[in-house]
# Entry
Amino acid sequence: MAHVTEIFGSMTFNDEVMKQRLSKEVYKRLKHCTQNLQPIGVDIADSVANAMKNWAVEKGATHFTHWFQPMTGITAEKHDSFISPIANGKVIMEFSGKELVRGEPDASSFPSGGLRATFEARGYTAWDPTSYAFIKDDTLCIPTAFCSYSGEALDKKTPLLRSMEALDNQALRILKLFGTTNVNRVTTTVGPEQEYFLIDKKTYLQRPDLVACGRTLFGARPPKGQELDDHYFGSLKGRVSEFMKELDQELWKLGVYAKTKHNEVAPAQHELAPIFTSTNIATDHNQITMELMQKIANKHNMACLLHEKPFAGINGSGKHNNWSLSTDTGINLLEPGDTPHENAQFLLFLVAVIKAVDEHQDLLRISVANAGNDHRLGANEAPPAIISIFLGEELEAILKAIDNGDEYVGKERIHMEIGASVLPKFPKDTTDRNRTSPFAFTGNKFEFRMVGSTFSISGPNVILNTIVAESLSQFADELEKADDFNATLSDIIKQEIAEHKRIIFNGNNYADEWVAEAKARGLLNLRTTVDALPYYVKDENIDLFTKHGVLSRPEMLARYEIMLEEYAKTIRIEALTFIDMVKKGIVPSTISYEAEIAKVMRLKFKADISEKLEHRLLTKLSQLLDTLYDKLEVLEGSLLQEDSDNSLENAKFYREVVFSQMNELRAVVDELETLVADKYWEYPTYAEILYSVI
# Structure
């Protein structure tokens, strides 16, 4: 096996490769453009394209593609070969700057929320030079943004780049007020932890609901789930270990900073965590990670499930979005230092985040809203739908002292005393962690734990970047016109703590008492996607995004329509899949078992033996089948109703009517599963699925 340092980034057109293959002048001009967010000229593009093509061909690539992230939430790519015809029926390999900079995929078949009509097909992809090109499946993949013919963003990358620029602008204003003049860029950084399930491929293919919907639509609880916590951090099974090894290798080749891997709490559940990098690159890397997880799992005769809640009754999967702010000089702006109570710059950035989260709870909730995550939020492994911030004992005490006008006396750093002399002593952290908090400060970053496992992290980070940019913008406006900078700074910090301390909660977010307390504090509890989405298009939220140039009004309205449509379609697909499985699998299975019981009853009757047990079981099965078919017909009738032209009303219908009817149907199916003999039951059970990888 090749050494990690040898293979890392070997399939990326990274900085080292560019230094080797571009002239010094071209390299210098390219870096100047990317670092200062300036457009790249045609001559530079031609030079880069030629070097990129030569490098890719040497690596075995035959095609190139503009790799982009449409509103489907997954990636898209259209492949073109490098070949160009010459005389005598021969070809040469060519790639121009024009082909590098711009592509033209069909824009009519991707979700647009009304920005494009079906007949309006033209769309453009534009090279994103801040993210390295890479080779995948003998194809040169060029990270790009995707827009319509009229210039609206049709993807998840464009708003992300805009939001990063907006936050950069406002953070620089603040730093200059503190006398920092050597910083040219402030970048948001992210480390997204990715949870997922691995199950046997054969078992997966026997469950049409997993194939079509990504989650099981029914399934009785297994005798053993996660009660013993024996899977968490347990030793890796052979097939899983081999999968993880290959996944690491392939990710490292593509420059993805895969760092940590382990078993998660639920049976068959695992996690991968990368090292932090800039949000734009982290977003690209996470999309690559999800794609490779599924591809490599298939090679190992397994299926990788990324759905937020593949199985009821056990933990679902999230994607913890660890978010921070760093300067191009290497300073983390959310690093408290040894004396955070004396660090005014840190405190200002901290209260900017607190203010942002409190004032825009609705937007943060919307950033993690979809049909899949509705199953997870509020369950015992995920934060509730209520947004709050965990700061820890020390920071909360500092803010409380500022709010009360008291002097803060810092705690003396203590060392852990574990009680065994042989064990090392080490400094104890100033605060514990809180895994129940949806938005927790963890040393020098915030961990946004509500993001669903299928999500592109672009959406949550667009929201985070924009709302924090707004807080910093308001602070900068006040400080720039202040006669006494220090006095105004002190007033801002004290005032913002007083106004937004309600959002700080260090307790148990899973407790029922917190729901009541949060309501008393005036915090939002938007339990479902349908509850949350209308907030997205409130005038003040549209004004916020347009002010910072992140999204226009049409782009926001389009995304609102896309999210509502996706929600309704997801539940409709699930309902149709459920109906199909009930009709073709569950009903025939139960009837076959009934026939077997009836046969035994007849034999016992002839032998004058009591068939009381069989009679009771047959009666129970018949009653459940009757109930099942009644509920099935009701669900089918609901799906025959014509969809409303109002997207919100349509989504509400699928949530309140169709989804509720599916749950009623599931309750009957799950009970039948506990009664029907295994040899008759058509589909693999939870126990068979969760323990299928051995």
The chain has a mean pLDDT of 91. The first strand starts at residue 63 and ends at 67.
